[in-house]
Amino acid sequence: MDMMISNLQQQRQVTEQLRREAAIKRISVSQAVLEIMKYITEHEQEDCLLVGFSSQKANPFREKNSCTLL
């Protein structure tokens, strides 16, 4: 009996999850790609990997000071 109630609760949770997922607004892939391309072109001047860093210290990818052995 407990197993049947547990199974019923599990099925209700699955049903609720499916309802939530069905309610999500969807867009076509082609529209999503166009929006991504638009975002990229609008923000490419702010992308440090494309335009570089204002100073070497601002670069988090710079080579760290090497350790020298005496």
Automatic annotation (TrEMBL):
Transmembrane segments: none annotated. Its main location: membrane. The lineage of its organism: Eukaryota, Metazoa, Ecdysozoa, Arthropoda, Hexapoda. Keywords: Cell membrane, Lipoprotein, Membrane, Methylation, Prenylation, Transducer. It is a lipid-anchor. GO terms for biological process: G protein-coupled receptor signaling pathway. Residues 4-70 form the G protein gamma domain. This is Guanine nucleotide-binding protein subunit gamma-1. One of its GO terms (cellular component) is heterotrimeric G-protein complex. InterPro entries: G-protein_gamma, G-protein_gamma-like_dom, GGL_sf. Gene3D superfamilies: Transducin (heterotrimeric G protein), gamma chain (4.10.260.10). It comes from the Eukaryota. It holds the Pfam family G-gamma. It is found in: Cell membrane. Belongs to the G protein gamma family. It comes from Zootermopsis nevadensis. SMART domains: G_gamma (SM01224), GGL (SM00224). One of its GO terms (molecular function) is G-protein beta-subunit binding.
